[in-house]
Amino acid sequence: MLGCDIGTLFRLTVAGGSYQEGLTAHLQGVPPGLLITEEQIYRDLLVRKPGQGELTSPRREPDIPIIYSGLNAADTMPGFSNAGHTNGTPLVILIPNLDRHFEHIEQYQVTNRTPRPGHASYASYRKYGEWDDAIGAGFFSGRYTATIVAAGAVAKQTLKQHGIEVTAYVKEAAGVRAPELSLQTIRERVAAYKEVRRSHDPVYRAIFASGRLKPEMRFLDKMAVLAHFEKEIPDLEWPPMDEEAIRKEHGVHPKLNCPDLDAADEMYRRIMEITEGGDSSGGVVEVIASGVPAGMGEPVFRKLDGELGRMMSIGTVKAVEIGGGIAAKDSTGSQFNDQMRVEDGEVKFSSNNAGGITGGLATGQPIVVRLTVKPTPTIAKDQHTIDKISLENRALKAVTRRDPTIVPRVWPVAEALTALILLDHYMMHLAYQSLSGRA
Q1: How far apart are CA 308 and CA 182, in angstroms?
Q2: What is the pLDDT of residues 110-120, one digit of tens each?
Q3: How many CB atoms lie within 10 A of CB 344?
Q4: Which of 276, 325, 351, 406 has a 20 to 30 A CA-CA distance from 37?
Q5: Taking residues 24-38, what's their average pLDDT?
Q6: d(Cα 322, Cα 354) in Å, to the nearest integer?
Q7: What is the rounded distance in angstroms from the CA atom of residue 16 to the CA atom of residue 140?
């Protein structure tokens, strides 16, 4: 299988499948000296994983990451304090699958001849034939995005040390669009949402807050913890959530990462209304990156906006907009151009319709990217399909576990993938500037 890697200087290769033993993120180009822990990575994974309420699939994968290589196992010599820090070798993160039960495999087996419309199951069968990993959609399941989120946690930490910050959130869901808010407000409320989710996550409490999994433990000891924890998953209980208190204290919706509470409430209502009718819904995720230096990017075939267009590789994304995006078609040049001026020796822009990128290079303004997310293909309604073996017409009614909407789980993936792309280009930018004597 080709196409499972991205990046030049900061390079990610992913592997695994929905019902295989697990998933793997293999990172090259990680700078030495970073203090990376499984807990830090899990803080990002916990907002992507399923099994967290009405808006996600009931599959209860804990998504506990295990760092397999790339860190110093101990202080390398007397007087050094470098244990647990990256050492410049490839960083490998494992995410074992712990919630895959035989009854669910049987459900896939009996329905795999009749591919879900809108899903990759027909095309992947035509590519791989009888060897297609069709249990749980294999590598074409959204499950693989856990690898992107895990790798993105490393990229975001690195970027932040250099003043570059990436934030994503739900801009639109089920036809309800959030109003424009300041970047500061968005960041404060997204951070509050993440903290609310962490503080109410039973896996975080059971594994990390309790000290059950420690960075200094050997790999086999960590896996023993997961093997024991796997048996506890069916009995995990979510701590009580006082939704009104969360709204008053943090100003966020407890289950949907939209920074405008009124819009989030209406999104939630509309999503549930559509779900109760047996259908699914889509939406829009917005990503904003600040602190990106002007001039960063490469021309022609590696333009920064073109590279961000790679977020079409997130399985459920059907369109990527930069800045004004498709609204450009209804604008005039005088309306769409971001006019410039100088104030106190600094370049200022009157607008940001370019989304912080012109000619494939960063302008120094915030980079704004929006992803259009399609409705979840798996729905509780009859659909027309085929028997992909006998090539006969069939009717299909979904029996597998499903997400009513995938939008609430795409924003962490978009945030992570944006960070991966930006870090790769930032490293190239620093190299070019250094060689040209401008660093």
Answers
A1: 22
A2: 777 888 888 88
A3: 5
A4: 406
A5: 97
A6: 7
A7: 10
Cβ neighbourhood burial of 181 (10 Å; 0-12, 13-18, 19+): middle
- The better pLDDT of the pair 94, 238 is held by 94
| DSSP assignments along 291-351, one per residue | -PPTT-S-SGGG-HHHHHGGGGGSTTEEEEEETTGGGGGG--HHHHS--EEEETTEEEES-
Q: Give Cα 141 to chain centroid, integer Å.
A: 13
Vertex 19: Cα angle to 14 and 20 (nearest 5): 55
Tell me what the mean pLDDT of segment 171-186 comes to: 97
- For the chain, domain boundaries: 5-435
Share of the chain above pLDDT 70, in %: 94
Strands (E), 133-256: 165-173, 176-177
Give the pLDDT confidence score for residue 267 in this predicted structure: 96
Q: Would you tell me the crossing angle of helices 243-250 and 183-199 to the nearest 10 degrees? A: 150
**Percent of the chain whose predicted confidence (pLDDT) is above 90:** 74
CA nearest 327: which of 364, 298, 360, 353?
Answer: 353
Closest CA to 143 of 250, 22, 279: 22
Query: 5-435 adopts what CATH topology?
Result: Chorismate synthase, AroC fold (3.60.150)
pLDDT, tens only, 190-206 = 999 999 999 999 999 99
pLDDT band, residue 296 (cuts 50/70/90): very high
Closest CA to 70 of 82, 56, 78: 82
For 113, 137, 381, the CA distances from 391, given in Å and listed in that order, are: 10, 20, 22
